[in-house]
């Protein structure tokens, strides 16, 4: 059952691993955008998560501490974004870009001297005999805990947004901040909390890149994953479950092209390695055009700053 | 607590004052960063901001300022046109790369013909390459409503892959013993972009940057299109009622910024960089975003901002060699500058009042 020497079970297994970072970052950004904030700094937060997580894990020897460190690092840098956009009312697009440029520089500064070090390994979740089920065991049940945690987080965000009061308030703030303010909700506070949640998720995703997926530290290690996460939110039309599908789609393309490269397919390596970005564009085009376009589903106050005049 | 009161119109004084305030704040925060890295902050700030202008090696380094400021100005002037109209082209790095490849390919295709028409043709090719690369997000935005921020950014990664293919494949020097990189333009007079006056750093890219600044200023101040760009950015609804076609603006703004970025790439690759290599691009396309904002999206402001940013590049390299400052510290410094700039912009759009004081007046 091999194609080009690619085993489908192994392909699915590596697809699940490859999609974790973008899934986490995208679900975080989805919450942020649902609150009406467009944070284009996902790439910057992810790479901060990657470097902080890596440093923490190397010094503590625990990948779990690394994930916490990654989330904390990304949240720290996102506080600047929160301060600028929510208190100083700066343009969200520009501030997000600033955070990406700043994060790329700062991460490379912090990561000096960590090149070539191996981080502590992340153990697979022991599922005992389940892992021995043919195909399914190899493809779905022999992963580290973050693979399952990320799926649980997507489910959690879906449930909270759809069924809870917190989710309703969050969506209200994102659809019409003036109305939410008039009802007495603290628009600014809710948005800051959403930004912090999004940063924590991007940080976890970044830490997963440097601790599990690669696993080592090099400059610019996230290689546009944060931007792909932003594209996935559009692809998902701001619906949590579709983030899952989107992340698996892009994870699948990444893994497939890497496997094709390794298997020596007759397509030149360059075309394969640009394919995730080209397919992102293609998917964006399909999703944003036509009658059922994704843009119609965007939160109404997305990207607009809130200034309470009264 | 403080409260913010929106100004009816942005303050003119603060519009001029904020860039200087932001630079001052960045120097303070940067000094703290350098101190945290175990360097003497005053020595570092002096090495970055003073020595390239008036220090021992200033004669050579002043030329380097122009070399670094020219691409930043060219790209930022184009980006600013779009930013003014609310069109976010953040893929200038990609347009810069593709412009460089297209223009260089024309020159390399006719090697070793010597004709005075080759370099002008290459310039056109560079602008065309950047324009084409920018037309992709522009067309997708106007025809399919696709977000131009994401598409233009994705195309940077695609352009980088094409660049590595060009340097190792279709533009590789056939006499280069298999090493990556194209033929050197410095030894091919008809296609080279040498220093026009030795020791000044002045090359055709600097000339083009100055022309672009004046052209953009005239466009914004004296031309209907410039008026429409400003109108669309400040009052999109009013612009629609006035019959300004949003699609046309997207195509024009993206196209102009792409062509300018492509030009910058061509001048860089034929002059200072000297050849198409895998990593000839050093992120000018992204730094130009900072330059555009630092120059307050005003062409002449951008010129000054580009010179300042060039100073941080040149001075940063000096600090790296003389004081052992990590080169990434400069990128952090540039990022900080944009943060401070966005923060102090508050002062030009809002008045800050003490909440208690306001009540007493009433």
Quickly list its features:
heterodimer; A: 310 residues; mainly alpha; ABC transporter involved in vitamin B12 uptake, BtuC; 12 helices; globular; B: 362 residues; two-stranded antiparallel ribbon
Count of beta strands of chain B:
2
Task: Compute the average pLDDT of chain B.
Answer: 86
Cα gyration radius of chain B (Å): 22 Å
Provide the residue-averaged pLDDT of chain A. 87
- Helical run tally of chain A: 12
> Which fold name corresponds to the CATH topology of chain A?
ABC transporter involved in vitamin B12 uptake, BtuC
Described by strand count, sense and barrel closure, the largest sheet of chain B is: 2 strands, antiparallel
Structure explained in plain terms:
The complex is a heterodimer of chains A (310) and B (362). With 310 residues, chain A is mostly helical. Chain A has a single domain, classed as ABC transporter involved in vitamin B12 uptake, BtuC, CATH 1.10.3470. In chain A, 69% of the residues lie in helices and 0% in strands. In chain A, helix 1 crosses helix 10, helix 2 crosses helix 10 (225-235) and helix 10 (225-235) packs across helix 11 (240-263). Chain A is globular, with a radius of gyration of 20 Å. Chain A starts with 7 loop residues before the first helix and ends in a 22-residue tail after the last helix. The model of chain A has no long low-confidence stretch (mean pLDDT 87). By secondary structure, chain B is mostly helical. Chain B has a domain at 68-172 and 179-289. Helix content of chain B is 72%, strand content 3%. Chain B contains 16 helices and two strands. Chain B has a two-stranded antiparallel ribbon with strand order 1-2. In chain B, helix 2 (41-49) packs across helix 13 (299-323), helix 4 runs parallel beside helix 8 (204-222) and helix 12 packs parallel to helix 14 (327-344). Residues 358-362 of chain B have low confidence and may be disordered. Classes of the chains: A mainly alpha (310), B mainly alpha (362). Chains A and B meet through helix 3, helix 4, helix 10 and helix 12 of A and helix 6, helix 7, helix 12 and helix 14 of B. Chain A: InterPro entries: ABC_BtuC-like, ABC_transp_permease. Chain A: One of its GO terms (cellular component) is plasma membrane. Chain A: Its main location: membrane. Chain A: Keywords: Cell membrane, Membrane, Transmembrane, Transmembrane helix.
